[in-house]
Structure formats: C-alpha cells, structure tokens
Design goal:
about 200 residues, alpha+beta, 3 domains, three-stranded antiparallel β-sheet, two-stranded antiparallel ribbon, 5 helices, about 30% helix, about 25% strand
Length: about 200
Amino acid sequence: MARLWSGRCRTCRARFYETTGACSDCGDLTRLTGGACKACRLFRWGHPPGSCPYCGHQQPIGAAGACWSCQATHRAARALKQQRRKRRTWPALSPAAQHVKLTVRKVSKYWAQATTPDQPDIWTTLDFEADEAEAGDLAQAFADALDQPGWYVNFESPAESFVVFPGRIFRYPRGDQAGRAEAQACGRQLAIPEPQLDWTV
C-alpha cells in the first residue's frame, strides 16, 4: 500500500513525467524531471540561487562558490592534472649522484602563496640532511631531475648556499648577496613568483 497521486505512487508518478534530453543545468544527456537531472535537482534543493562567477548563469551556488556544472568541471580538470602528474617519468640520476645518502628529517604540507597555474595549491616540503662532502653531487642530482618550468631546490651547508634549477646550479658562500641575487634573477627568468624567491642567504 502506498499513497497515490492521480492514481500513481510517488516513484511511478515521477517516472511518468520524466523525459530524456539535455539537463538545463549541467547539459548531461540523461533522464529529466522538470528539465533537470536528478543530481542537479538535489543540488537545487540544498543550495541558494545566485550568479556563478565562472559561467555567469543564475544557478544554485554550492559551498565552493560555483554552480554544480562548474564545480564538476573543476573536479574533473583537477583529477586529470593529478593523473598526468602520476604518469610523469623521472630521469635517471647521474652515476655520481647515485651514491649520495639523503636523510629526510621532516615532511610537511602547507598552502602555498602566489602560485602559478601549473603549480598545486598545497605544497609538500622535505627537510633533509646529507654529507657536506656530497653537496655538489646532490645539487647535480637535483639539477638533472627537476622539472620545467619553475621548480627549484635550495639547501645550505655550514659554509655555502645552493640554489638548483632544472639544468643549472648556483653555489655561493653563505651571506653572499651577489650570489643570491644572481640565483634570484634566474628564477625570475623562469617566471617564478617573487614570494617564492625568498630562500635563506
């Protein structure tokens, strides 16, 4: 026994008014009720209407500040970007760098500031230690492995500072402003934002 509307239960009544076509909100080809798919109807019920800053349409706006369609597009693009990053192949280390012993002391994550479009919003940093005598080999290993356009590594020994870009190494005495400025100039040529060029002198 069930409550009836026009001789039909709730499920059958909804199916009776369903059509097949493109959803008015997301554009997907699927079964529609009232011109919208089930996902978009549920989204409408739980979110207030407004103007989407991405597509400009008057739609219910979710917690991420966009309509259902734009949020789904953003999630798909982010998933594709992560998938491409997983498929990336890394170059083999040079023979001189394969014997370097690197000890990771700390792994941390934080929200990065002034990122470029090809950089993620959340960065992972590694605090590491290595033998001072192997600093040159370690820098060469990073120079061989770093990816374009604007990734770099900086580290210090008691006497020297190292700033390593893809295929290029800057090595200068600790406190040498001229050496630091030269490395920063290279970073600007690679379009690295200024706030990211603030490594220790």
